């Protein structure tokens, strides 16, 4: 291949240095002699150019990426053929790959890893909006330019979701260190598959290692299908619960448990970046650039002096207050990946179900007077703090004047829960645990299609309740109080925790 250096393609692009190679093509640094600027040339190998399928895949890459214009996607400038060898001309990005950066640093600073993930997710979102799936998201295919910005490249196996053929023979395309379970099994690949690969890349940015090793690529691919992802905090203890939950949701084996789209992942990553800024109190490099692009609602969570600088006096005190407030508040969020404070698992092998801050509601169908049963306090039952609680209305007679009252949690998008744990300072009450996939009806218990999955006749201060839902996945779980404690006119639910 070295003999081609110094030659000029189509009378315009002089090949000056070989910068990388793959199975299908070689990438060169070249000089655009017309515009007098450096460019990157991807030149198809001569032996591959004779394969019609490979040739069409290469041409498809040019067509696919040419549709995309995004600050975090390496742009296509031109395409052509020289002596029957197709090539694509890209903008030249001076810098290093994200993989090289990880190898050089070992583990990236947590805010930097989150910032790069936001930029990559935004790039993938632009591609997915055009029905283009990358199919090979990995740190090797992310370039970090000399200003520190991430740019996604190498859509060499990308294809539109509307396009048929070329990969319908079940071949697994992509690097197995980052391959999604469905892609490893030769199943249909969507934008969610790219999000899985990004989640694995985020794991590597945080820990310095890919999660799975094996004797060969097939063994690694099967681990993505069968084995649980190691806890990112075991390799990086300082990772927040919120960020760990993002990694977990992005890399869920089941599509139903994974982020549904780029927007969900980006929103959670943006919230996590606000947490990290509150914790560290400083921002540098690309983190600063990403902070400027956050939605205003998220920017307001970042300490003002981090966003604007110049407030050295009293900054330490302000930062401490804001950091505590943000970590406590955002640390309790866990909808699609934003974390909370974990409670001890009631049994080995069980994992706590993440619940968002707004994912609890008081429930009082057919209640006298239609009272809301202190619904504004509902979130206190799932905030990870046993010193706070949701409390029922006071029943002065010491008896419920209805069939029941309670609180339900929204475990969206649904989970097979094995146990529910109640922490309370008013033990002795009776409960039945119900589950449903129908949005709870505020006035009609029956219309909510509740299914009984567990019960306790006298709840202890910490009560483990085994749930008998089999393999059924439910979105809503209701703690239905049917009897007050003998010595209390109210019931307090200090913590309600689900485990799967």
Counting DSSP E segments of at least 2 residues, the number of strands comes to 21
Tally the helices: what do you get?
Answer: 14
CATH C-level class of the largest domain is Mainly Alpha
What is the first-to-last residue Cα distance?
Answer: 55 Å
Question: Main sheet: which strands, in order across?
Answer: 1-2-3-4-6-5
> What's the quaternary structure here?
single chain
Count up the domains.
3
Question: Which percent range describes the beta-strand content?
Answer: 15-25%
Largest sheet: 6 strands, antiparallel
Q: How does the helix and strand content classify structurally?
A: alpha+beta
Shape: elongated
CATH fold-level label of the largest domain: Transferase(Phosphotransferase), domain 1
Question: What is the CATH superfamily of the largest domain?
Answer: Transferase(Phosphotransferase) domain 1
Helix content: 25-40%
* Structural Rg: 27 Å
């Amino acid at each position: 291949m070295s003999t081609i250096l110094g030659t000029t393609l189509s009378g315009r692009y002089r090949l000056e240095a070989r910068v990388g190679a793959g199975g299908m093509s070689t990438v060169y640094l070249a000089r655009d002699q017309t515009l007098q600027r450096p460019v990157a040339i991807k030149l198809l190998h001569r032996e591959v150019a004779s394969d019609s399928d490979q040739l069409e895949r290469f041409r498809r890459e040019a067509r696919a990426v040419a549709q995309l214009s995004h600050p975090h996607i390496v742009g296509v400038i031109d395409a052509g053929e020289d002596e029957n060898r197709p090539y694509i001309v890209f903008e030249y990005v001076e810098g290093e790959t994200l993989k090289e950066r990880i190898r050089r640093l070992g583990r990236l600073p947590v805010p930097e890893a989150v910032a790069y993930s936001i930029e990559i997710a935004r790039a993938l979102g632009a591609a997915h909006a055009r029905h283009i799936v990358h199919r090979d998201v990995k740190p090797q295919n992310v370039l970090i330019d000399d200003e520190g910005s991430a740019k996604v490249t190498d859509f060499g196996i990308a294809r539109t979701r509307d396009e048929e053929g070329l990969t319908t023979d079940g071949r697994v395309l992509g690097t197995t260190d980052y391959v999604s379970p469905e892609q490893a099994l030769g199943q249909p690949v969507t934008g969610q598959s790219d999000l899985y690969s990004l989640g694995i890349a985020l794991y590597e940015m945080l820990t310095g290692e890919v999660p799975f090793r094996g004797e060969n690529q097939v063994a690694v691919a099967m681990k993505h299908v069968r084995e649980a992802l190691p806890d990112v905090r075991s390799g990086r203890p300082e990772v927040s619960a919120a960020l760990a939950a993002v990694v977990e949701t992005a890399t869920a084996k089941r599509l139903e448990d994974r982020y549904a789209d780029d927007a969900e992942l980006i929103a959670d990553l943006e919230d996590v970046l606000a947490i990290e800024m509150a914790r560290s109190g400083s921002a540098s490099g690309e983190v600063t650039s990403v902070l400027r692009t956050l939605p205003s609602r998220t920017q307001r969570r970042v300490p003002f002096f981090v966003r604007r600088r110049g407030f050295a006096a009293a900054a330490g005190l302000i930062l401490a207050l804001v950091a505590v407030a943000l970590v406590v508040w955002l640390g309790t969020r866990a909808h699609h990946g934003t974390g909370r404070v974990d409670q001890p698992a009631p049994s080995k092998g069980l994992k706590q179900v993440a619940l968002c801050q707004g994912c609890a509601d008081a429930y009082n169908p057919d209640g006298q007077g239609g009272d809301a049963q202190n619904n504004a306090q509902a979130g206190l039952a799932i905030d990870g703090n046993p010193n706070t609680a949701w409390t029922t209305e006071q029943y002065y007679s010491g008896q419920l004047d209805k069939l029941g009252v309670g609180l339900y949690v929204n475990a969206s998008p649904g989970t097979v829960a094995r146990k529910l744990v109640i922490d309370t300072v008013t033990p002795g009450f009776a409960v039945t645990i119900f589950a449903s996939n129908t949005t709870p009806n505020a006035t009609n218990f029956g219309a909510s299609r509740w299914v009984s999955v567990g019960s306790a006749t006298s709840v202890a201060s910490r009560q483990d309740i085994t749930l008998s839902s089999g393999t059924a996945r439910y979105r809503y779980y209701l703690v239905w109080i049917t009897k007050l404690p003998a010595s209390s006119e109210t019931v307090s639910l200090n913590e309600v925790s689900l485990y799967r």
